[in-house]
Structure prediction request, 339 residues.
Amino acid sequence: MPNNSTKILLLTTLTSGILISISSNSWFGAWMGLEINLLSFIPMMVEKKNIYTTEASLKYFIVQAGASSMLLFMVMMSALEESMLTNSDNLYTQMLINTPLLLKGGVAPMHWWFPGVMEGLNWDNCLILMTLQKAAPLSLISYQINNDVFLGMIIMSSVMIGAIGGLNQTSLRKIMTYSSINHTGWMMSAMITGSDMWVMYFTIYSMLTLTVVSIVKTTKLSFINQMALTEKKNKLTKFLVFTSILSLGGLPPFLGFMPKWMIIQTMMTNDMSTTATMMVLMSVVTLYYYMRMSYSSLMILHSETKWLIAQPTNKMPKYIILLTSVSVMGLMVSETIMT
Prediction:
């Protein structure tokens, strides 16, 4: 892991790459921003003390470099077709350009690399991979999105794989990975409406993910069975884990329910009731493994087990308490303001 000054420099260039991709007026500029973003994140992934980060960074580099090459090739082919004035199908061209962007964002069914990479990273890099690294690909997809059959299949596969894939997982990193895939499906469904609602969803999702990752990083948790090992007397930690996880799952009356509520209303207005119904059903499935995590943290009161002795819980930073309070009260406050 680089030192603090190097990490700040890499974070700056990583953010610059995202901004270049989002604000570019050409595909070449967007591709250049994606490459700057990739080359900034790779050094942040590697740690000397953890051998798994080398495998994760190599796998991430190969996938992202392949997707970037595919994107550049598809853009060149599209420009060549336009210059030759051929009657190519615009939807087919958009599908070819969106495919490498979906691979970069870890959207199902191009998600096969996502859980493996997440499992080899520390929690700081996991947070970046689930939030910042999705911003540029999703923004580029939103610029040219259409409500077609291909996009509908991507949305449904993301929602279903994100829900079903997390059912048999015990690793918190993989659970958060499949949760991210599920939320990405919801963001892409918000893009269909033609509004910037997905940006609001992404912002709230990033805040809730920051809250959950900060809690599990502070308590040094990696698996569900370890969530029962937090100090029995530390009720605050258990409450923070319980509320933040359920808010990330979109359970009323927490803040995580608000963007899903707005997307469901918009989809029903646009005669997409079947897709909205399936998405709600899959959200109920995701709530099952969120409840499993919450149950382990709140209801099980044993402070130790036969195979592992509980570690003393670190003092919870104040910003985590603030983020959790926003998560709990955010929906009620926003409803009060809107009414």
